[in-house]
Write a structure and sequence with these properties.
By secondary structure, this protein is an alpha/beta fold. It has 14 helices and 28 strands. The strands form 4 sheets. Strands 1, 12, 13, 14, 15, 16, 17, 18, 19, 20, 21, 23, 26 and 28 form a 14-stranded mixed sheet that branches. Helix 9 crosses helix 11, helix 10 packs parallel to helix 11 and helix 11 runs parallel beside helix 12.
Length: 636
């Protein structure tokens, strides 16, 4: 969206739909591999997966749908947050150690689960074993129950007992590396201690006596115990449901994510978070993360992690997508699925921009999710529903919901990432080359059409276009093939597209560019009118060729300026008048990030940055410098 002064905020809300780019140009260098932290390949296991696991009972009897999902749409499985709890509910207490699960029970139950249930009874699933790349996690009310809601007949004895159970579960219920599927499912590489504990214990359960500090200390105790039994699994948290850092002038950051890093940072291998765009959040209308808000959120964590721990720890985004409170807890509608879909691909594109920092990201698309049925109303975000749930249709058979369109859109994408750039921050872009094909992925963040001019190498013979957009009250995935070079394409409002460009010969990748990121030594600084806030960017590798961008994250009340004066090593920078995504007009505060080009000749080993706003209030949350040794990819 275009940056505006505080006085014109109300006007922008009224005319938000008119703020389109006249015409967008995207440049794609098919011969130039784009690497971030040494990673340049599209990893489908990491990004294109379902919030389900191969042996989930939801797939029993759904062989045809399962085969379509895995074989035709190339989807992996990503998360199992139920099996560990199911076995806990049946677990007896260790007769010699009150509060701990009996190890003999875990040994026997694990052997049956591993070798008999998965290894033998579910042998028909072994042909899909390679895509069963799941992480596991604990549910807060099962592992940290409040008085009166214990799920077992006895009470777990705290963090050490929970961690021991999780560690033993990882060892007993999964096969060892190198063993075949007949020995069980492959052992998960990631575990979250608790799923959304702050939402369950603090936001959603008013009056619970637990503090965030006590929940985080529980993470530490459980992590130490897990490692006694499984030193290889990567452990993370806090699996935060709503990372709204800027709330109350960043008090929520201090009380939650900063506190988590301070308390648990040394014990955690990764940070886990959830991101949802809301088409309607309660009665506040739109509340999106996609665009600059997601960038500002992740940059702030990265920067403080480096300051506090001396390292930038990676992320797992174990849930993300779109929601609409006004359509939830009701019968299925195609419109509700559209609100999920219009957020899923742009969020995926932004996570793809950090391949070195994302260990796994999982769109929250569950299987049948019958565990979530309430008062006869099925759960909201699920991949399968019964025929009778669609208007005018009948029968008990299970079919795909419209959420399958996310996987149909992405079904072919593969290959090596190549350098690409959009001149419109509201048209997100990524590109991959695989043999004779190039895949160009586009997402339109604007609620109006955007015409995109494609500037890529000549020689294209044809283009197969998948275009996911809204028609009437639901999504449509339109597919068509153009038997000539495609020079431009018009994205529908909030639509996404995958364009598979075909060439006569294999595309030769002859060059490689590498992206680097450098962090300021300070962060989260208050803003005072007319007073420069100084930051130091040290130990930067100067460039002889390429491009650089200064990334400035900030959060302010809606009526405050969003266009600061920025001076880099004594040179005033030209601050762009656009940032990516929504103006956030219905939120109590704006939280986003500006991406400001920096002349590479101004970059030194040690650099000074001065940022000054014309009015007081809010904070500069992060300052980083992103460089590419030749060219720059992104939303610029």
């Amino acid at each position: 969206m275009q940056i505006i002064s505080g006085k014109t905020v109300v006007l922008s809300v009224l005319f938000m739909g008119l703020m389109s780019h006249a015409r967008t140009t995207v440049d794609i260098q098919l011969n130039m591999k784009y690497s971030v932290g040494g990673i340049s390949s599209f990893d489908r296991h990491k990004y294109i997966n379902a919030h389900s696991h191969l042996s989930e009972p939801d797939w029993v009897g759904e062989d045809e749908l399962l085969d379509i999902l895995v074989s035709d749409l190339n989807v992996s499985f990503g998360r199992d947050n139920g099996t560990m709890i199911e076995y806990l509910r049946q677990a007896p207490e260790d007769p010699d150690r009150p509060g701990y699960v009996d190890p003999e029970y875990l040994k026997n139950a694990g052997r049956i689960h591993r070798k008999i249930i998965y290894g033998s009874h579910k042998a028909y699933l072994h042909k899909y074993d390679a895509v069963n790349d799941v992480m596991i996690g604990g549910q807060p009310h099962a592992f940290l129950p409040s008085p009166g809601e214990e799920k077992t007949k006895w009470e777990l004895g705290g963090a050490d007992a929970v961690g021991e159970y999780m560690g033993r579960f990882l060892q007993e219920f999964y096969r060892n590396p190198g063993e075949p599927p007949t020995a069980g499912q492959s052992r998960p590489g990631f575990i979250e201690i608790l799923n959304e504990p702050l939402y369950h214990f603090i936001d959603g359960r008013r009056g619970d006596i637990r503090s965030a500090k006590s929940i985080f200390e529980f993470h530490n105790g459980a992590a130490k115990a897990i490692r006694r039994f499984d030193p290889d699994v990567l452990i993370g948290g806090p699996t935060m449901a709503f990372p709204i850092f800027e709330e109350r002038d960043f008090a929520r950051w201090d009380e939650r994510m900063k506190l988590f890093i301070d308390t648990c940072g040394e014990q955690m291998d990764f940070y886990s978070l959830h991101f949802y765009d809301f088409n309607n959040r309660g009665d506040r209308a739109r509340d999106d993360y996609k665009g600059s808000r997601l960038e500002a959120t992740l940059d702030m964590i990265e920067q403080y992690s480096l300051i506090r721990l001396g390292e930038v720890k990676p992320f797992i985004i174990s849930e993300y997508g779109g929601r609409d409170h006004k359509l939830e807890n009701r019968v299925w509608t195609a419109l509700r699925d559209w609100h999920f879909l219009k957020a899923a691909t742009p969020l995926t594109l932004q996570l793809l921009d950090r391949p070195n920092m994302i260990l796994k990201s999982i769109p929250f698309i569950t299987a049948k999710a019958e565990w979530g049925r309430k008062n006869g109303v099925p759960y909201n975000r699920r991949l399968m529903h019964q025929m009778k749930e669609r208007p005018g249709r009948f029968g008990e058979d299970w079919i795909f919901t419209d959420l399958v369109l996310f996987y149909e859109l992405w079904s072919d994408v593969n290959g090596t990432r190549v350098k690409s750039a959009s001149d419109n921050p509201d048209v997100l872009l990524d590109s991959y080359v695989d043999g004779k094909k190039a895949y160009v992925i586009l997402s339109n963040l604007n609620p109006v059409e955007e015409t995109v001019d494609l500037n890529l190498s000549s020689g294209m013979e044809s283009a197969r276009i998948k275009h996911l957009y809204r028609v009437a009250d639901g999504p449509l995935l339109e597919e068509k093939t153009v038997m000539k070079e495609l020079k431009s394409f018009t994205l529908k409002p909030e639509a996404s597209a995958v364009i598979a460009c075909s060439f006569a010969d294999s595309i030769a990748i002859t060059e490689t560019v590498e992206e680097h990121k450098f962090y300021a030594s300070d962060y989260n600084r208050p803003i005072t009118a007319g007073r420069p806030v100084e930051f130091a960017l040290n130990e930067v590798q100067p460039l002889t060729s390429g491009e650089a961008v200064l990334r400035v994250g900030f959060g302010r009340e809606p009526d405050r300026s969003r266009r600061p004066e920025v001076v880099f090593n004594g040179t005033a920078l030209e601050v762009p008048d656009h940032y990516s995504g929504s103006d956030q007009p219905t939120r109590p505060a704006f939280f986003g990030l500006l991406e400001i080009p920096v002349p590479i000749e101004r970059i030194k080993k040690n650099n000074s940055v001065e940022i000054m706003f014309p009015d007081s209030g809010g904070r500069i949350s992060s300052v980083t410098l992103q460089t590419v040794d030749a060219g720059l990819n992104g939303r610029k």
